[in-house]
Amino acid sequence: MELNAKIPPGPLKDKWSFYKDHAKLVNPANRKKMDVIVIGTGLAGSAAAASLAEMGYNVKSFCFQDSARRAHSVAAQGGVNAAKNYKNDGDSVYRMFYDTIKGGDFRSREANVYRLAECSAQLIDQAVAQGVPFGREYGGYLNNRSFGGVQVSRTFYARGQTGQQLLLGSYQALMRQVAAKTVKLYTRHEMLDVVVIDGKARGVIVRNLDTGEIERHSAHTVILATGGFGKIYYLSTLAMGCNASAIWRAHKKGALMACPSWTQVHPTSLPQSGDYQSKLTLMSESLRNDGRIWVPLKPSENRKPNDIPESERDYYLERRYPAFGNLAPRDISSRAAKERIDAGFGVGPQRNAVYLDFSKAIKEQGKGRIKEKYGNLFDMYRKITATDAYVEPMMISPAAHFSMGGLWVDYELMTTIPGLFALGEANFADHGANRLGANSLLQACVDGYFIAPYTVSNYLAGEIKSERVPIDHQAFIDAEVQVRAQLSKLLEINGTKTADYFHKTLGKLLYDYCGLSRSKEGLIHAINEIKKLRADFYKDLKVPGDEDEMNGELEKAGRIGDYLEVAELMCLDALTRDESCGAHFREEYQTPEGEALRNDEKFCFVSAWKWRGEGQEELLIPEPLHFENVELAVRSYK
Amino acid sequence: MKLYLKIWRQSDAASEGKLVDYELDNVIPHMSFLEMMDTLNEQLVLKGDRPVEFDHDCREGICGQCGMMINGQAHGPIANLTTCQLHMREFKDGDTIYVEPFRALAFPIKRDLRVDRSAFDRIIMAGGFVSVNTGQAPEANGIPITHEQAESAFDSAACIGCGACVATCKNSSAALFTSAKISHLAKLPQGKMESRKRVLSMVKQMDEENFGHCSNTEACEVECPQQISVLNIARMNWEYSLSSVLKK
């Protein structure tokens, strides 16, 4: 099997225009006859559903939350990038493209990344028109802040709630279409399988989480915008319900998964405080604009942070990366924190944190200005830790955050199943081996608002003659039988351990062996342990209740069953990549200074994986990356 | 800490519910309230009992999905906080805690502590948006908006739609929720154009959903996790009167 990314011809800057000029269209009268299913109502999902409905398609939109407004895009704090160059600081589409491709350690497609930068300015226009209250200067014009890994200010923000405000914009656009009856919205519905007929995605099987009912929905195309699966680590910055099930079940139906082990570990989350903990709360990267990160110079320091004099502090990011300092990219900052913590310089009761200190910024700018910029983050910190960060430094620690990996998609964001698209964090596309801050909101929005309307139409133009598939088609019956069997299987085990037990055990394994640093030995060990844990799961899981009712434990068990398979593929993916790049840090491959050591000769490709059946090792299908516009450089932030 | 919990259990909307007693040992002050509930549920599952269903997702105070009446207060004893941000250090060893769902005619109970807040979505559907399609937007800096105007619109837009305002109001009024969206959009030039039609339509929908009227007790603002101001309600009333008069 050869992967064809379908990159349009021509120079880099003209590729997207070329695509748009030549994409096939569906005339308005035919659009009414075509059904589109969108799974997920985060930024990518709601933007795509609303935009396609505005064009005239019949859209069905699904989310597992009780309202479309609660999808986890809502929690993104810091901002969204766009190459507007409002700051007149030398920004341009090309520079944004270069920053992103370098930030991803040269492991993404040039054409995709360029398009992301190219569409960024338009996204800001769209959001402002929807009423997103971005931060403004006193003259009335839009303001920007800086984010990690770049030397310009191109991040637009709405205090520390940018994701919420952007999502409310797309949610409102979606609800406008629901009111217009062009979208039918199904909340509290979870996708459990994709239905493939004659090799094309033609529908889904979903479960109504309030009643337990299994439903079949048919369409001409299915769009997955189901987000990331960082929750596989159990302790993460993600919401409790975030999961891999939709993309994993699509994977088992033939869609390839790309680079699943590339997980971003965010450097500024709150540290774990005990075994009962269910999530790690993120503190926005934007705080690193004004906060300075340090640990005591002396290991096992017992003095309070404010009692440690300046001369006995190690501002290790400023020391190691003077050019970018506290704004070094996330993978590098997280690894640097882990290095200090592992060396015994960690702070806090569990010695698992570093300080993020605002005293200098408060002295220079005043408390009022800091409060205006980050007030809600300081409030959140106080609510969770009962500590006033205006007086005492915050304590932060790395936490699993974003999945760069996901379903493999071509330039049109279509998976290897024709008619099945993957948008936003659910796909592997633009971020390579490490995502830059404030690029995730951007990618989700650009995929949903500006790319899917063209590429989905281009696909549907070829499907005009396809009749609607009735839901009593054999493929729907078979898929439903399989889904029901899976649910019954989980309920029938009746063992002695809860779903959460397995999730926590799996999460710890992944943090230890497939997290910030990986080794061949550790990954082989982890694969064996995961296999054992999966066997134990199907022998000793306990799920009370029934399948035909609301059953939160059954939902969890289904997701964890999938995670136990995803985890094994993650480890295999990490094991077969004998190099370090971005978030993927193999201990065997590092420079004498401890920086990631890429191997462009052997690993300048995307690892796409093909499911070959239960108990069989997945097949690696590489998609070679061709760099025609940038030189593969050592990624330095020193 | 040892806690005595009295938790509302109800199978579905049609059934009668009741408070059920549970005892929970080894509660740690650093736990969040929902982690305490997780601990209880883990024990219930291992005993083969049905765990307590409750709404939650992001657990960082922004998705608006969690919400319980804790000792009679929406989101518990601390003002301007979501349930997921409430920590057990606010309680004492030996405390008895009453845990109930958000109660309102417009929020039917689905099971245990889970309620149906889709009425909020229908209020937004009635006009809580700017009528702009993808692709129609002009240049973002084309219409300057003062810093103060943008900040003020943000203050209204920050609502997370949790429903604590309704749950705490003796009239079960959704005035704070509805007015926050009306104000957010009316404060910005992009939303201003449709503001007259919007306020009439959203208020009409709010009434149809069986929410009560606002009688200005201001209890909603006290509980609101985002500190949405009751001044939004004043603005809604003003916009409503103006629009009603101008319509005639």
Q: What is CATH's topology name of the domain at 267-400 in chain A?
A: Flavocytochrome C3, Chain A, domain 1
Unreliable stretches of chain A (pLDDT < 50, length at least 5) are none
- Overall shape of chain A: it is globular
How many runs of DSSP E, i.e. beta strands of chain A?
Answer: 20
Radius of gyration of chain A, CA atoms, in whole angstroms: 24 Å
Q: List the quaternary state of the chains.
A: heterodimer
For this structure, what is the CATH class of the domain at 267-400 in chain A?
Alpha Beta
Alpha-beta content class of chain A: alpha/beta
Could you characterize the architecture of this molecule?
Chain A: Its cofactor is FAD. Chain A: This is Fumarate reductase/succinate dehydrogenase flavoprotein subunit. The complex is a heterodimer of chains A (638) and B (248). Among the domains of chain A are: 267-400, Flavocytochrome C3, Chain A, domain 1, CATH 3.90.700; 474-597, Up-down Bundle (Methane Monooxygenase Hydroxylase, Chain G, domain 1), CATH 1.20.58. Helix content of chain A is 37%, strand content 15%. Chain A has helices at residues 15-22, 28-31, 43-55, 93-103, 110-130, 162-179, 245-252, 316-320, 330-345, 359-365, 367-385, 440-460, 474-493, 499-513, 520-540, 552-575, 600-603; strands at residues 35-39, 58-62, 80-81, 155-156, 183-186, 189-197, 200-208, 214-218, 221-224, 257-258, 263-269, 292-296, 313-314, 354-357, 394-403, 406-408, 420-422, 427-428, 605-610, 619-624. In chain A, strands 5-2-1-9-17 form a five-stranded parallel β-sheet. In chain A, strand 7 (200-208) and strand 8 (214-218) form a beta hairpin. In chain A, helix 10 runs antiparallel to helix 11. The model of chain A has no long low-confidence stretch (mean pLDDT 96). Chain B has 248 residues and is an alpha+beta fold. Chain B has two domains: 3-111, Roll (Ubiquitin-like (UB roll)); 118-247, Alpha-helical ferredoxin (Fumarate Reductase Iron-sulfur Protein, Chain B, domain 2, Orthogonal Bundle), CATH 1.10.1060. Chain B has helices spanning 33-46, 118-125, 147-157, 164-168, 175-186, 189-192, 195-208, 219-223, 231-247; strands at residues 3-9, 18-24, 69-70, 73-74, 96-100, 109-111, 114-115. In chain B, the strands form two sheets. In chain B, strands 2-1-5-3-4 form a five-stranded mixed β-sheet. In chain B, strands 6-7 form a two-stranded antiparallel sheet. Chain B is elongated and about 60 Å long. The mean pLDDT of chain B is 97. The interface between A and B is large, with 78 and 76 residues.
